[in-house]
Amino acid sequence: MNGMPVDTVWNYGVFNFNEPNFVYRYVKGETDYMLAGYPFAWFLPEYQATQRRVVEQELNLTQGEARKLIGMLQEEGLPENRTYRYNYVRDNCATRIIERIDSITGKPVIYPDKVNYGTFRKVMRHYHEAYPWYQFGIDLALGSGIDVPITGREEMFVPIEMVEKAEGARFADGRPLVRETRVLNQGVVNASLPPTPWYLSPLTAGCLVFVISLILSIWMIRRKRILRWFYSVWFGVTGLAGCLIAFLVFISTHEATSPNVLLLWLNPLQLLFAIAVWWRKTRVLSYIVAYYNLIVIACLLIIWPFQAQNANPAFFPMMATTLLLSGVFAGVAPHGYRFNKSGEISFNRKGGFSSGRGMSTSVSRSRKKRK
């Protein structure tokens, strides 16, 4: 300032992991990020050390606009002003830059109106293409709020999209937004993590689980036995996922977590199924959840193409697994069950229950009585 060059970095993406209950507050939606300013000399070496590409866009600002922007950043960087409630797609480290540039001129910058993807989820999928588990988690946690149509300007919540659209942007008076673009550090192509191979993707995992459940279901139908441990594992996993989704839908203040149609499939009821399958006194609860799954998931698969929320491809073999296991339980265990030492539920031919050896014994005794 005062004619002296200012070479600083202002970062809206800073947060403190050491804050009390950080993970819980983040999941709940209390995502408090901060603006931090520091010398540019501290910034570049970190990116050079990790061989990441750094591109600088020099903004075509007047001296008055530049002073106004620096003053605004310094004011926002004060301890009492620097914290803000971060929103992944509406108010993040990229959208804040766009809004601050608009505010110093009093009129919105005119960006190219080209829509490349159309929804927030499609933008994310493009940039997460090499990391399907990351996208799987997003598709699990975020509902139909990220499937609404968006403009080309709204796609700029992704920093790379912001940089590319800024190249063709103009101020309201016709000036180009960017005066010059320079590469400060070339970096390397593979500076990020390597892509996830297809055989380790969520879709492959979902298909593998379905194939295993299909094989075990055939075995259970033929032997008329229910493998309790397998039911506990699968419905325990889906139940825990359901508890997380229920928390995000009903308690979290994240904008895009509700509504989430996956709650019809992944909900705490599945966890009850995983527990209730072990005791005769709770078998009614097991049947209720099994029939709930058969009806609701079948309807969900039918109506899915006609509702707004987009699904991760891995969801479908996983939903099919829940549907299959629920159907086997409802069909193989129509009257109740008794447990043998191997952790299986077995049935005799007259609707009673016994272990595999006990079944033949009970049948032979009934034959002797008839004689």
Tell me the distance between the termini: 109 Å
Number of strands: 8
Helix content bin: 40-55%
The best one-word shape is elongated
Number of helices: 13
Radius of gyration: 29 Å
Q: Can you summarize the main beta sheet? A: 3 strands, antiparallel
SS strand fraction: 5-15%
Whole-number total of structural domains: 2
Query: Could you state the order of secondary-structure elements as H and E?
Result: EHEHEHEHHHHEHEHHHHEEH
Instruction: Determine the mean pLDDT.
Output: 88
Cross-sheet strand order for the largest sheet? 1-2-4
Question: What does this entry show, briefly?
Answer:
The protein is mainly α and 371 residues long.
Descriptive notes:
With 371 residues, this protein is mostly helical. The protein folds into two domains: 143 residues, no CATH class; 173 residues, no CATH class. The protein contains 13 helices and eight strands. It has a three-stranded antiparallel beta sheet with strand order 1-2-4. Strands 6-8-7 form a three-stranded antiparallel beta sheet. A hairpin with a 4-residue loop joins strand 7 and strand 8. Helix 3 crosses helix 4 and helix 8 runs parallel beside helix 12. The chain is elongated, with a radius of gyration of 29 Å. The C terminus is likely disordered.
